[in-house]
């Protein structure tokens, strides 16, 4: 999809970080330079962009990039039946982490609060926004959908694109309620628009906490919900509520077989309630817990200060080597396997040998 807009940021990563991004492999600085043709003449540090990292993987693994994804990419719908658990934070950071790993990412903001939109660097209050509700309505009622009016390139080369949100998305349910087949309009939109959606390796969707028709649409389009549980006493209750939504979808659409992966967020070793909540979750939902627990970390709060000088996108983009950044990267790597995310059809977890 051609868009005339400039990408908002162009992150670059140092050699040391990039050599860790090849799962199960180590690559020398020499190999990285050779593949990308990058040399620093003045001896300064070389920076590799997400596009460079993709190029490196394509070369090392011998991936045929022309072999377009025939199937729709895996969809990660980040959900919890409660606000303030870290959904937007995790959506933004895993989206950035996948791009950093060389995967093409479409991020969709499904919350009228527009936190994902703002963390990624689009000012939802000041700009004209075409959101996913608008696109679904165009798809359902007209012949053409103007995706390019909605799409915001965050990183160059379509490595991270965003369909943003703003407060007007609260209207989407008013329209959805009048439509027949209202739960599956988003699902049909994705299936019937392969030229656009299939160019990405993964789709990450942030959601509002409420059980709205829009949130049902977003859930019903994916296979595995990524539930973000904040580690306090409420988390188990909120988890049960989310489960009742999932049971309802599976009852209405038995072939969907929707399931859940749970990520615990906000762990702090000196708070006893964190440990309690984590052990209750682990006991109640043992097979569903992701092995990574996201720490309570001050860097995540800094990234929230949008519209200030220091706002520069998600933490992982700024401080990939920080405590928080490293856990996010591990989480993203684990999700590659969990969701079957491939690089143009190539699974680097299964065939990690470099040519
Ligand atoms: N692991 C964490 N460490 C520190 N602050 C966090 C963490 N996770 C979330 N927060 C903070 O909590 C608030 C709510 O997070 P957010 O991602 O907006 O939640 P949600 O999208 O679920 O409503 C934000 O201010 C965010 O910076
Ligand atoms: Mg949010």
TrEMBL record:
InterPro entries: AAA_dom (IPR025669), DNA_Partitioning_ATPase (IPR050678), P-loop_NTPase (IPR027417)
UniProt xrefs under Pfam families: AAA_31
Gene3D superfamilies in alphabetical order: P-loop containing nucleotide triphosphate hydrolases (3.40.50.300)
UniProt domain AAA: residue ranges: 75-252
Name of this protein: Putative Cobyrinic acid a,c-diamide synthase
Native organism: Crenothrix polyspora
């Amino acid at each position: 999809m051609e868009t005339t807009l400039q990408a908002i940021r162009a992150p670059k990563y140092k050699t040391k970080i990039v050599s860790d991004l090849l799962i199960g492999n180590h690559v020398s600085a020499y190999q990285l330079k050779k593949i990308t043709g990058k040399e620093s003449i003045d001896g300064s540090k070389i920076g590799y962009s997400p596009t460079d990292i993709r190029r490196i993987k394509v070369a090392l693994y011998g991936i045929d990039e022309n072999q377009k994804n025939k199937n729709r990419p895996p969809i990660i719908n980040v959900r919890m039946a409660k606000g303030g658990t870290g959904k937007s934070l995790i959506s933004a950071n895993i989206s950035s982490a996948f791009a950093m790993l060389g995967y093409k990412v479409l991020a969709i903001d499904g919350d009228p609060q527009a936190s994902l939109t703002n963390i990624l660097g689009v000012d939802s209050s000041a700009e004209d926004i075409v959101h996913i509700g608008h696109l679904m309505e165009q798809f359902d009622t007209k012949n053409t959908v103007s995706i390019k009016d909605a799409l915001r390139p965050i990183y160059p080369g379509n490595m991270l694109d965003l369909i943003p949100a703003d407060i007007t998305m609260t209207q989407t349910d008013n329209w959805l309620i009048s439509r027949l087949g209202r739960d599956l309009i988003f699902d049909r939109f994705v299936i019937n628009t392969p030229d656009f959606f299939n160019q990405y390796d993964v789709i990450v969707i942030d959601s509002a906490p409420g059980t709205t028709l829009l949130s049902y649409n977003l859930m019903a389009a994916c296979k595995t919900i990524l539930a973000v549980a904040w580690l306090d006493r409420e988390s188990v209750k909120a988890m049960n509520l989310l489960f009742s939504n999932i049971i309802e979808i599976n009852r209405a659409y038995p072939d969907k077989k929707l399931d859940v992966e749970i990520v615990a967020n906000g762990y702090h070793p000196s708070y006893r309630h964190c440990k309690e909540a984590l052990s209750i979750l682990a006991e109640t939902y043992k097979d569903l817990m992701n092995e990574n627990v996201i720490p309570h970390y001050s860097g995540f709060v800094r990234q929230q200060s949008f519209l200030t000088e220091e706002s520069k996108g998600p933490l992982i983009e700024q401080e990939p080597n920080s405590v928080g950044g490293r856990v996010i990267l591990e989480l993203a790597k684990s999700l590659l396997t969990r969701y079957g995310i491939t690089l143009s059809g190539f699974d680097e977890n299964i065939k990690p040998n470099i040519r």
